[in-house]
């Protein structure tokens, strides 16, 4: 398959982790005889520095002409600490999601066996967790009207949803559940919010079309508690934009590190694939960022194109890196290896997937991983 991939490394650790994902995709292309072509463009704080715009037209045009977008991370402390900034890096990502019609953000949450004891949560609680969060991505409070009065003493953000916006992601969530454990949990705040009551009504109606799938409801405050109390009860979680943002970061604790969580944003003709973590500016340039979320996002990209064997080759290599503890310090505090070394190992394992090829001594000496 021939794919033109737009690469938007963004800010902070974005470029470092994206580099490893590209390395891995190139190895897959060699092994499976595909042709992946990568073109880079600026987004976020770096794009503001270069052009004054967090999503320059050139970047948006490149994305539109590509088959998929591989996205790094976005955000910089100088904006986080300046509430008066008119232009912000995050606006670049939000505009890109809107322009590309990426209304569904899919975030898989899994407890990896080799990491069970790394989570601050008890092993018996998280073991077997396998959740797919369907977060609505182009509506709600993120995109409603924002106001600040003249005096700068009153502000508001409107949470708006239309029936159509709810319907389209709900169908995707139910279709996903049909191929999984056949359960959808709608997370909302229908005891307080009118928009949540519309979600309940619309989702309940659509559930009739999927009789094999059971639907249940949780208020978001309760869901936040249930997520760490009993995460194995969840299969597909369907929720609006802001609730999805919050509970997915919370859910990352189950996996052992937010540095593991990948996502796919779909809905338009072009998909965007990005780690759920932020730009981690304190870690930038130090070679300590975990590249697995970016690498696993690349695997989600391949799945999106139906390249399932290729995606599995990546996830198998990731599993092997976790099993052998060839991981960055967030997962392996005493003996962590660098960002690029994790990428090198995964690349090597994709090219030589037999265990017999592994030279266990060399792996930790920082030499070639393959005999
Ligand atoms: C995410 C991020 C973004 C969001 C930010 C960077 C705008 O936190 O993808 O989860 O809030 O959607
Ligand atoms: Mn987030």
Give an overview in words.
With 371 residues, this protein is α/β, with parallel strands linked by helices. It has helices at residues 14-32, 45-51, 57-65, 77-80, 89-99, 123-126, 163-178, 194-207, 220-229, 241-255, 292-304, 308-323, 339-351, 360-365; strands at 2-10, 35-40, 68-73, 104-110, 130-136, 146-148, 155-157, 183-188, 214-219, 236-239, 262-266, 271-275. The strands form two sheets. Strands 2-1-3-12-11-4-5-10-8-9 form a ten-stranded mixed β-sheet, with helices on both faces. Strands 6-7 form a two-stranded antiparallel sheet. Helix 7 (163-178) packs across helix 8. The protein is globular. Bound molecules: 3-isopropylmalic acid and manganese (II) ion.
Overall morphology:
globular
Structural class: alpha/beta
Query: How can the largest sheet be summarized?
Result: 10 strands, mixed
Distance N terminus to C terminus?
Answer: 30 Å
Number of separate helices: 14
Percent helix range: 40-55%
Q: What percent strand?
A: 15-25%
Radius of gyration: 21 Å
Give a list of the ligands.
Answer: 3-isopropylmalic acid, manganese (II) ion
What integer is the average pLDDT? 95
| Extended strand count | 12
- Element-level helix/strand string: EHEHHEHHEHEEEHEHEHEHEEHHHH
How are the strands ordered across the major sheet? 2-1-3-12-11-4-5-10-8-9
Unreliable stretches, pLDDT < 50, 5 or more residues?
none
Provide a short characterization of the protein structure.
This protein is α/β, with parallel strands linked by helices. Helix content is 42%, strand content 18%. The longest helix is centred in the first third of the chain and has 19 residues.
